[in-house]
Amino acid sequence: MAISQNATETTYRCPTCAGDLAVRYDSFECTDCGFTPRHGSD
Predict the structure, then answer these.
(1) Nearest one of 17, 42, 26, 25 to 34, comparing CA atoms
(2) Is residue 6 part of a domain?
(3) Does residue 24 lie within any of the structural domains?
(4) How many domains does the chain have?
(5) Per its UniProt entry, which superkingdom is the organism in (predicted)?
(6) Regarding predicted confidence, which is higher, 2 or 18?
(7) Looking at residue 9, what is its pLDDT?
(8) Distance CA 28, CA 23 (A)
(9) What is the pLDDT of residue 27?
(10) Pairing of strands 12-13, 20-24
(11) In terms of residue numbers, what domain contains 26?
(12) Is there a domain that residue 18 lies in?
């Protein structure tokens, strides 16, 4: 049986400036403008 493997790294884009979102301090933050998306618990 063949096993398919997907890349574990996914790139997320900022909704305000289309920059990359990086994981910082267990949350996402845009590397360009500093945008931080709200958490579901907020």
Answers:
(1) 17
(2) no
(3) yes
(4) 1
(5) Archaea
(6) 18
(7) 57
(8) 5
(9) 84
(10) antiparallel
(11) 12-41
(12) yes
